[in-house]
Queue: 3 jobs
Job 1
Amino acid sequence: MKHIISACFFLFSLCMSAQSVTITVDQNVTLKEFFKQIENQTDFKFAFTDQIDTSKKYFNQKSTFKQTDIEKLISELNKTASIQFSIAGNNIFAKQKTQQTQKPAKKKSKLTGHVLDDERQPVIGANIYVKELETGVVTDVNGKYVIEVPNGSYTVQVSYVGFKNEEKKVSVSDDTKVNFNIDSDSQQLGEVIVMNNKAVDIKTTQMSVNKLSMQEIKKIPVAMGEPDPLKSILTLPGVTNAGEASSGFNVRGGAADQNLILLDGAPVYADSHMFGFFSIFNADIVSGLDLYKGGIPSKFGGRVSSVLDVTQQTGDFEEYKVNGGIGIISSRLLVQGPLQKEKGSFILSGRASYAHLFMKLADNNNSAMFYDLNAKLNYRFNAKNSLSFSGYFGNDIFDINDRFASTYGSTMGILNWKHKFSDRLNSNLSIFYSDYRFNLEIPIESFKWDSNIQSYGLKYNWNLQQSEKFKINYGIDGLYYNFNPGVVKPTSSDSQFNYMQLDKKYALEASAFVDFENQITEKLNFRYGLRYSMFYRLGDETISTYENGQAVVYNPLYNIYEEGTPNGSITYGKGKTISKFNNFEPRAALSYAFNDETSIKASYNRMAQYIHILSNTQSPLPMSIWTPSGPFTKPQLLDQYAMGYFRNFRDGDYSLETELFYKNVQNRIDYIDGADVLANNNIEQVILNGKARSYGMELLFRKNTGVFTGWVSYTLSRAEQKTPGRTPEEPGIANGDWYLSGYDKLHNLSIVGSYELNPKWSFNGNFTLQSGQPVTYANGYYEMGGIHIPNYSLRNENRLPLFHHLDLAATYTPKPDKKKGWQSYWVFSLYNVYNRKNAASMSFTTNEDTGANETRRLSIFGIVPGVSYNFKF
C-alpha cells in the first residue's frame, strides 16, 4: 500500500501547477474591473474594508502580466499600486496603504486559537485578519487558526458571513493563544465584505448531496410535534419510505438496508424507535446531516444506495449550558460545558417517552416506551493533536397484556484521534464498536428469542492539500462482524420449545481508498478515485449442500418454487474462510462552471455491498436479521451514473438543482412466494438472485433568504427488479420480466415553507404527495374445504392509493431579544391537517358474519395535534 500511495503522489504531482493569470492594468482600470479579471481566471475571491471604493482607479502605471503566478502578481502590484493586497487562503485582502513602516522583529511566534459561534460551535472558514501586517488566514474544520507573526502588538479581526465582526488587541512575545466568540448578525456586514457567497457551490464536483442544518430540521412539522432529523430527509428529492410510522428510508429506488448510516463516523444498523414513529437521532445534539445519493466519494463504501452522515455537536469549551424540551409523548434534556476551559468539553443528551404512564393510569396493561442517551467528549492536547469520544445507547420496550414483551436497541461508541502533521497534511484515526440487538419473549408460550449483530472497526484517513488546485484523500478501513441470527430459549420446563441456536456467522471486511481533487482550469474541476474492498465469510459454521447446488427447487406440477432438501454439509472451523470476494470500486465526478452562477456536473460510482437484511416486508422490522454474503448470496454491485444542471439566481437568493440518474444493481435478492425468513437456519432455501435498476429525474428549487424561505422538491422515477428463471423451464418471479420493486414511487413531491412573521411568531408548513406503494392485490378467490382463499396477481402489479398530507406548525418565542438566562419557545403543530386516511396496507379476508369476501384498508394516522415547550439557559 505504501508503494501504491507513493506512486500516486509522483504521478499526480505532474498534474499540479500554481494558479496563474494573464492581465493588463493601467491608470484607467478600476479596482472592480481588476477583481473581475482575477476571479474569471482563478478561484480566488476578494475581501476588502468599507473604506475601499471599487469604482476608483488605484493603479499608477500600465503593467502587463502573462501567465504570471498569482503570488508574484500580487507582489509586483504592491510595489506600484496605491492599494495593498495580501493573500489568505482563497481570499485576497485589499486595503489602503499607510505611510507607517514596520520594523521587522527579530523573532516570530505563532498566534493560534479557535473561533466559535454563539452556540459555541466551531466556525469553519472564518477570516482571521491582522490589520497591522495586512495578512490573514482561514479557520479549519475545527474552527482553529494558526498564523506566524513577528513579536509585537496587533489588532486581530475575525469576520464571517452572517456574523458580527469581532476585534481584539493582541500582544505577542511568545507563542500565544487567542480565542474568538462571534455572534450571528442578520444585518449586512459593515467593515469586511466577502464577495460571491453562493447558496449552491457551483464549482465543486460534488453532486447528488443534500445537506440540512438543525435550524432547517427544527422547522419541518412532523407527527408528535418533535423535530426529527430522519423524517426531515423525506422532504428531499429522491427520498421516500414505506409510509407513515414505518422505519427505514429509500433513496433513488433502493432498499432500506442499502443505506449506510453513520453517526460521527460509526455505522448504526437501525434508525428508528417505536416501529418508525421516532428516529434514533436526537435533534438537540445533532449539528447537521449530509445525505449522499450519488457521486459518492471513495472514502465511503459498504452500501449501494446512499450514505447518511450524521454529526453530533461539540460541547462548549468555555461555558456550561442546558437546553431541552417537554412534549406530549417524550421529553429531552441536554447539558454541555468545559471539562477544562479551552482544552476539554463534554456534551450529554438524554430523551425518553412516557406515553406508557398514561396507559397505566387508564388501567391499560399495554406498555410502549423508548429512551436514548448521546454523549460526546473532546480534548485538545495541543495545536496538532485532539481526541474525541462519541457514544450512543438506545432502547425500546414493548409489553402487551403480559402476553408479548420485546426490547430492542443499539449501542455505539467511537474514539477518534486527529493529528496535524503540517499545514498541508493531517490524519484521522478512529476505532469503533456498534451493535444492534432484538429480544422477544412470549410468556404464554414460555420461550425467549434473542438476536443481534455486532461490529468492531478501524479507520485511518489522511488528507493532503498539495496545493490550492490539488488535494488527496486516502486511507484504510477494517470491519469485523459477528452475526447472531437468533437463539430460542425455553423459559419453563413445560415449554413446547427446545433450546436452539441458529448458526452464528462471522465476516471480515477490509478496504483501501484514494481520492484526488484536481482543478484543471478555472472552470473545470475533476475528482477521481478508487476503492478496493475485500470480504471474507469466516467459520466456525456448517454450510448445507444441495443437489446441483440449488437450495431452491422448482416444482413444475404446481408452478411454484419450494425449499430444497440438503444432501450433505461442510463444516468450517473457527477463522477458516468459507467465501471470499473482492471488488474494485472506481469513482469519478466532473464539474464545468459556465460562470459564477451556472454549472453542469456529472458523476459515476461503483459500490459493493456485502451484508444484507433478511426481510420480505417493504419496511424493516425490529426483528429483521442481517446476514453476510456467502456461498448462496453474492455481494450486491452498483453502477450509478448521474448528471445535473445547477444555477444560482439573484446572487444566491434562489437556487435550482436538477439531476438525471440511472442505477443498476447486480445480485439483488428476492424471495419466493410464501417465504418464511424468521428463525430460518437455511435462508438460502427461500431466496433467488436477480438484479435491480432505477432511473429518474430530481428537481430541487430553494428560496434561501428573506422572511419567507423554503424549497420545492420533485422526483419522477422508476424502480424495478428482475428475477429470471435459472433454466428456460423456470418462470422466475413475475414470469422473469421486470416488475416494480416495493420502493418504486413514480411521483414524489414535497413543498416546505417557513415564514417569519415577526421576532415572536414564525410559521412552517410541509406538504407531501407520493404515488402509492406497489403491492400485490388479490384478483380472485377459490374455495378449498369451505374456506375462501384469495388468488394473487403478479408481484407488485398494483398500488396503494395516492399518499398525501399537509402539516403545519407555529413557533412562539415570548422574549426573542433575551440572549442570557432562561430562554424558551413553544411549538404548536398539526400533522395531517385535513385528516387524510392514507392506506398503510390492504388485506383480503372473509367477513366472519356474512361470509363475504372483503378488502380492508389499514390507516395509521388521522389528524395529530402536538405541542412542546423548549428551553435553554
Note: The longest helix spans residues 2-13.
Job 2
Amino acid sequence: MSAAETAQPALSAPLTKADFLTDYRLAWESRHASLAGRKEVFMGKAKFGIFGDGKEVPQLAMARAFQDGDFRAGYYRDQTFMVAIGQLTWEQYFAQLYANPDVEAEPATAGRAMNGHFATRMLDDDGNLTALAHSKNSSADISPTAGQMPRLLGMAYASKLFRQNPELHQFTDLSTNGNEVAFGTIGNASTSEGMFFEALNAAGVLQVPMLVSVWDDHYGISVPAEYQTTKQSISDIMMGLQREGEGQSGFEIFVVRGWDYAGLVDTYQRAAAVCREQHVPVLIHITELTQPQGHSTSGSHERYKSKDRLGWEESHDCLHKLREWLLAEGHATELELDDIEKNAAAVIKTARTAAWAAFFDPIKAERDEAVGMLEKLVTDTGTENTLHELVEQLKTNPTPIRADIVRTMRRVLRAVRNEKRSFGRRVVQRHLEQLLAENADRYNSNLFSQSEYAVGNIEEVAATFAPDAAQVDGREVLQACFDANFQRDPSIFAIGEDVGKIGDVNQAFAGLQDKFGELRVTDTGIRECTIIGQGIGAALRGLRPITEIQYLDYLLYAIQILSDDLACLQYRTKGGQKAPLIIRTRGHRLEGIWHSGSPMQMILGSIRGIHVCVPRNMTQAAGFYNTLLRSDEPALVIECLNGYRLKETIPANVGEFTLPLGRPEVLKKGTDVTVVTYGSMCRIVMEAAKQLAEVGISVEVIDVQTLLPFDTDHLIADSLQKTNRVVFADEDVPGGATAFMMQHVLDEQGAYRFLDAQPRCLAAQPHRPAYSSDGDYFSKPNAEDVFDTVYELMSEAEPEKFPEIY
C-alpha cells in the first residue's frame, strides 16, 4: 500500500475507555520520568541522561501489537514501550539512570550501560534460556546508531527457521511455530547508516517478520533532515522495497503521524498482523514527532531549532494531541485528565525517591562501616595528623561513591605503611580485599558464560584414529565434522556467501545443503555486517548458527557489530543474555593484499568477550568446532587459508573429539630456544626448526592454538624455564599479536625471570602482503627469517660455536 493510503487509517482495535485512559496515564508517567531524569543529571545524581519524551504515543500503540514471544531490538528512547509491555518499572528506570549495580534493582544491565539501554533477562540463574516463547523479550540495546539493525534481522530470521524447519518444531519454549515478530526501533537520522539499508535489503530478500519503526522528529542531534535523508523522508526513498501485492516479495510500508493515536493503534495492528501471519517485513515511518527536551542532557535544542520549529513542536506534542483527541471523542473529561497528569507526576516522584534510596543507602552504609574501621586505625597508629583529613573527607562527603571508599582505604594504608602492624590495620586490609572482590563482581564479571556449558566445562575427548585411517584433504575433515554435528543437533545451521550451493569457496560444506536442506546450509548476499547480525539474533533465540566471513580481511565490515554487540552481550547484561555464535573465517598466508590478512591486533583489541581460535590445520579446527558447538559462548575460528588441500588423517570420531581452549601444544621439544606461534606459521617454524637442528640448535616449538583465551595453564613459561630464550612469531603487523603473546608470557606469567637473552618478536612487514609467491615471501616471515632470528640468539650466547652468518 502507498504512503498516501496509510496516512490516516481509521481506528479498528477494540479498545475501551479504560484502555485509552491507561495509555494516557502511561504516557504522562513517561513524560514526567523524562523531565525528572534530566533534573537528576543536572543535580549531579546521574552522569548523563537521554530520554523518550515526544515518542510516548507511538510507543504505546506499538506495545499494543507486541505479543508474548515477540522480540525487540531498539534504541535508547523506548522507555514508554518497555513500561507498557510490563518489562520495565519506573523504579528500575531510575535505577539505571543512577547506574545501580544491583541486578535485582536494575535487571537490564546491572548499572553497566547508561540509561535508556533496555533488556529483559532471558537466562535463568544457571545460565539457561527461559521460555522465551511465553514472555515479552527485549534484546540488550547498544548505543552505536543503527547497531541494533543486524541483530534485529537475526531475531526475525529465527522465526522463519522455527516456522519452516520441521526439526525445530519440538522447541516449543523457544517459538510458537515462528509466529514471533521482531520489532525494531530507530531514529530518523540513524537510517542514514549503512547497517540500516543493509538490514532492510536482507529482510526483503529473506522475507522475515521484521517490523521497523522509524521515530522521525526531523533531527539527528542538531542536524536536520535535509542533511540526513534524500527527499527528507525515509519512507519515500524506500518505496522501491514495497511489494506489488500479497504473495510477492518485498516490504509493506506504512506512514502515520506520531501524534495520531487512533491512526497509530490501527497501523500497528495491521502491520504486525502482516508480519506475524505472512512473514513479510514492514517499515512504519512515524512522522511529525517532537523532542521536547532536545537530544540529551549534553545540550539544549534551542541552540539549533528555530522559534517557528519550537512553536510547532509545542503545538504538536503527542501528549497534548492525545488529550485533544480524548476530549473531542468524549472518552474523558478535563477533570479526569487533569487528575491523571497530577497522579502521574506523583507516581514518578515516588519511584525516583525509592530508586535513589535503593542505590544510595547501601553506599552510605558501606561508607559508614569503612569510616568506623579507619577511625580505629587512626587511633591505633597515633597518626591523627596524617590520616585525619583523609578520613574526615570521606566521613563528611554528602554523596560518596564506592570509588571514594576504596580510594580512601588505599591511601590510608599507604600512609601507615611504615607503622607497626596492628589489629586495626589488618581489619582495614581485609575489608579492602572484600570491597575489591565485591566491586569486581559488580563491574568486571560475566564477560563469558557462568553456566555448565561454558567452554571450560566441556569435557575433553581425544581424537582417535583407525589403523587404516585415510589421508584426505583438510577440507574433508571439516566437511565430516560439520556433517556429524548437523546430524547431532537440529538447531545448528550455517549461513554465508557461497556456503550453500557450492559448499563454500573451499568446499568444507560441499554436499551438505543437498543433505540437510537450504534452511540449514544457506547462501547469503555479500553483506558481512548483517551476516553476523543474522547469527547474533538467531543465537539469542536459542539456535546455533555458524556464520561465515569469507576472508579474514572482510571481518572489517563486521567488526563494529562483533565488538559493540556480540563481544559485550553477556557482560552488559551481567549474564542476562547470551548469543553463542560461531564465526568461521580463513586467513593468514596466501597471495594478495585482501586475501591473506592476519589483522590479529585489531581483533584481539576489539572483541574481548569472544574466543579466538587459530588452529594450524583442519583437524584442530574440527576439534574446536566440536567444543564450541557444545558450549554456550561465542567464538571466532580462523582457519588456515592455505591448508584446505593439505593432507590430514581423518579422526574416527571426527564429530565427537574436542579440544580445550587456552591450552597450547608442544609440536617439537627442544632445549635451546622456545618459539611461540600459531596458525600457518606453525609449518614455517617447524621447517626452520628442522634446519636449525642441522646446525646444532634445539628448538622447542609451541602452537598456542587459541589467542583468547591464552595459555591458561602457563605452559609456555614452563618451556622458558628450560630454554631461557624465546621468539614470538606470527603474521600480524609488528607490535600486534606478537606483543600480545609476549605480554602474557613475560608479564602475566612472570616468565621474564627465566630469560638469559632479550625476547624477540618476529612479525610480518607493516603493510599488507604483496601479490604472488614472492610477495608472500618478502612480506611475511619465512623459514629463513625464523632460522636467522633463532641463530642470532644462540650466536650471542655462544659466538664461537655459532659465528655470524652475514
Note: The chain has 26 helices and 22 strands.
Job 3
Amino acid sequence: MHIAPARVVTQPSDQSGKTSRLDRSSRGWSSRLVARLAIGVALATLGTTSFAAPIATVDRNGSLVSVEAYAPNIVRVTIATDRGQVDAPPGDGPNAKPDAAGWTHRSDAGADVFTSSALSLSVDAKPWPKAPSQMERYFAPSLPPVSVTIRKPDGSMLTQMTGWEMAPHTVNGEKTFRVGASFASPADEHYYGLGQNQEGKLDLRGRTIDCRHNYDAPAGETVCVPFMVTNKGYGIVWDNPSSTVMSPGLHSATHWQSEVGERVSFFVIAGATTDEIYAGYATLTGTTPLPPKAAFGLIQSKARYETEKELLDVANGYRSRGLPLDIMVLDWFYWSRMGQLDIDRNYFPDPKGMNDKLKSMGMHSIISVWPRFEKESRYFDLLSTKGWLLKDKDGNVVDGLPIRSDRAGALLDSTNPDARHWFWDRIRDNIASQGFDWFWLDETEPDLVPDGSFYSIGSGDRYHNVFPLLHTMSVADGSAKDRPTMRNLILSRAAYLGAQRNGGLFWSSDIKSTWEALHRQVPAGLGFTASGMAYWGSDIGGWQWPNGPKATRPVLLDPAGATAMAPDYADYPELFTRWFGYSVFTPTLRIHGQRPATAIWQYGTAAEPVLANFLKLRYSLMPYIYSLGRHTYESNAPMMRALFMDFPNDPNVADMGDEYMFGPAFLVAPVTEQGKTSRQVYLPAGAEWYDYWTNQRFTGGQTVTANAPIDKIPLFVRAGSIIPMGVQVPSTATAQALESIRVYPGADANFALYDDDGVTNDYRTKGGRKAVVRWDDKTRRLTASGKLPTGQDAASLVQIVSAK
C-alpha cells in the first residue's frame, strides 16, 4: 500500500506570551506559510533533533493536524481543513503559554511522533485516498481521515482518537459546522467530570451527557465544564464553548460532538495519579486560589431577608446561643428595582452600619448581585446604547425569558470587557462601599438563555457555555485591582474551564427540598470536583419551598417547634439534619432556601441540639479543613474526593458515588433515605479503617453496616491519619488554638498543618505559617518540622486513638 509522505510545517514559539484570538487570526497567511515551510525543511534534515517551537502541523491528505505542547504531560491537538483555524489559539478557558521544552519530533513513513518525558503522541500516516466505490460515494466521510495515538513513556496506550467530523449546518443564522471526535474506549475504562450532572450517577460510562448550562434540566441544573478524567491516567479538555453532547464508553467508543465550530481542538493531560492530572489542569487553566478562611465556616442565607433588622436578628441569634457563624448573606430583592444596583433604604436604612455590626461580632457579609437590568432601571438605556446587553438577530435587546413566566430584565453582555469593567465599578461604588465583603453572582449560566441571541463576541449558540467564566472575571479582576490586599470570594451558580481561577465557590442551584434531591447531591458534587473545580456545595435543605412526599417510615426528629416549613412536612427537620451533617464534610457549609425560616434553631426543639453539635464539629475540624484548602491552592487537588481518586486499584469503587473521601483522612457515607438508622458502607481495599464514632477498626475491602442514628453520619478514618482538632471559636475571626492532634495508627503518616490571617492575599507571597507533622507508626512517635502555626507544642497535643 502506498503511504502518503508526511508534510510537516511548524511555527516558532511566541516568547511574548499568549496572543489574543484577534491578533493571532490577523497575521499574514503567506508569511506564516513561508516560515513554516522553512522550518519544515530544517526538520526534515534534523530528523529526531529537539526543537523549541511549540507547534508542528502535519498534513494528512488535506486534513491539517496541529500538535502544540504546554508541558511534558500536556499536549493540544487541533484538526481542521482551514489553516487559519489550525493556527488559531485555544478558546476562552485555557490561559497557559505553549511550552515545548523537552519535546522531540520525528517523522517517518508510519507516523509523525512527538515525545516528551511524560507521553508520546503520534499522528498516524494515512494511505493516499483511492477512487471511491459506488457505496462509498454515498456513505464514506468527505473529510480525509485522521487518527492520533497517545501513549505513556513505556509504550502502553493512554488513548487513541480514531476519527473526526465536521458536518455543515446553519445555527442562529450562521453557516458553521457540527464538529466532533471519537476515541477508542476499553471495556474497563471509566469516566468522570464534565461539570455538574444531577442524574444520580458518578461514572459517565455508557451515558450520553448534554454538556451545556441548563437551569431547567429535569434532575437539577446542569453545568458544563468540558474536562473529563479517566481511570487510565489521562484527562481530556475539550476546547469548544458551544453545547456539546458527550457519550463516554458507549458502544466501545467515546464521542464528543459540539454544535458550533470550524475545527476540532482538545488537550490531553497525562498523569500517574489523578492529582497529577488536576495539577496539569491548573497549569493549563489557572490555579485555584485559597478562599478566605470564613468561606470554610458557616454561611447563613435565606431567600430572602426582607429587612436589615431581620438579618441582624438572625446573626444575633447565633451569638446569643453560643453558636459559631462566619458569614451572613443578603440575597435578592434588597434593591429598589432590578438593575438599579442599589440598596433599598426603606428596608435597609443603614447598610454600612449593618455591616459594621456584623464585623463587631466577628462576621463577614456576602450580597447577591444580578446581571439583569429592567427597562425601567437607571442603567438600562446606557447599557443598551453602548451595546452592552444581549441582543436578538435584529439588534434589539433581549428582555426576559419566554419560559417560567420570567419576563423582566435584559442580560449584561459580560463577553464585552468594557461591560465587565463597568459592572465592577458600579458594584464597587454602590455596594462594596457599604461594607459588603464579597459578592454572589447569581444567574451565571446565564439564566437568560443565549441560544438564538448574540453577544459582542458572536452568536450565543457558539459561546453558549462561556458566560460564567467571563462574568465572574468582572469581580475577580475588579477586586484584584481595587482591593489588592483583600482575598476574593465569589458565589457562582455555574462554571466553565478556568472559572476556578476567579475565586468561585460553586453550588448546585435551586434544587428541590426532598430526599431524592439530597440523594442526587452526593454524586453531583463528586462529579463537579472531579472536573477541576474544588469548591462546591449545595443549599442545605434545598432551595425550593419545602414540599415532599409523606414520610414512609417513622420520623426520626419530632417537628414540634419547627418554623422552617409547613406543618404537613413532618420529616423536613430530619431531612435538613441529614443534609446538614453531610454538608459538614463538603468544602462549603451554607444554609439557604426559599422557606419561612432557615437558621438552625428553626427546625424544631429536637433538631436544634443535633444541628448545634454538627456545627461545632465543623469548627473543631477547621484546622484540618483550612490546611486542605492550602493544599488545593498548591496542587489543585480537590478536598472532596470521589473514591476512584485515592483507590485506583480497587475496582469496587469505580462507580461509587454515594461515598467519598474528605481530605486524606475521612471516608464519608451520607444517609440520604428517610427514617434509616443504618447504612451499608464499603471500606476501600488497601487500607485499614476506624469508625470515627466508636474507634472500632476494620480491614479494607469489605462492606460493613454502619449505625446511623440521627445525630451521627457514617464516618470512617483511614489508618495512618493525622487530624488536628481546634478549640471552639465563635468564628474564624478568632484565633483558634489546637485542642488536640489525633493520630489513627496503622501506617506512617504526615500532614501539612497551615494557618494565616485568613483574609489577605499575603498567603500568595509570605506563605503563611506551616509545619509538617509526621507520625512514625513503628516508634509510635509524632514529630513536627518546626513550630506549629498556633505556636503550641505538638507533643503535648497528641491523642493516639486506640482501636476497639
Note: The two ends are 71 Å apart (CA to CA).
